[in-house]
Amino acid sequence: MPETIRAVSQSVLGGPEVLELAETERPEPSYGEVPVRVCSSGVNPVDPAARESGFYTGKIVLIVADEARGQ
Questions:
Q1: Can you give the pLDDT at residue 31?
Q2: Which residues is 24 bridged to in the sheet?
Q3: Contact (Cβ atoms closer than 8 angstroms) between residue 69 and residue 41
Q4: Residue 28 contacts by C-beta under 8 Å, 6 or more apart in sequence?
Q5: Of the candidates 30, 32, 34, 38, which has an alpha carbon nearest to the alpha carbon of residue 66?
Q6: How many CA atoms are closer than 13 Å to the CA of 24, on its beta-carbon side?
Q7: Residue 18 carries which DSSP code?
Q8: What is the pLDDT of residues 15-47, one digit of tens each?
Q9: Which residues contact 24 (CB under 8 A, 6 or more apart)?
Q10: Closest CA to 2 of 35, 41, 47
Q11: Largest pairwise CA distance in the chain
Q12: Is the pTM of this model over 0.70?
């Protein structure tokens, strides 16, 4: 597996204009977890609210799209 992954992230609160494509370190799975190669991901209806207010995660810097299809 590659050492890094590409992800859509944000470092400030705001609308879709704050989204950026970032390359970040590939997370290591914890005990009981397996890595999944994401083939596609979706946007949940709550994602825009989290992006604009940070209420969903409680933090500003986040990787967007918790819904994914992988193999």
A1: 95
A2: 5
A3: yes
A4: none
A5: 38
A6: 12
A7: G
A8: 888 888 888 888 888 999 888 888 887 777 777
A9: 4, 5, 7, 9, 63
A10: 35
A11: 37
A12: no
Residue in the structure block whose two tokens are 């500003």: 60
Domain residue spans of the chain: 4-70
Q: What tokens appear for 35 in the block? A: 């890595």
- The residues near 31 (Cβ < 8 Å, ≥ 6 apart) are none
2 and 35 Cβ atoms separated by less than 8 Å = no
| Gap between the Cα atoms of 48 and 56, Å rounded | 10
Instruction: Report H helices in 1-71.
Output: 47-53
φ, ψ of residue 23 to 5 degrees: the values are -105, 130
64-57-44 Cα angle (round to 5) = 45
Q: What does the block give as tokens for 15?
A: 């609308």
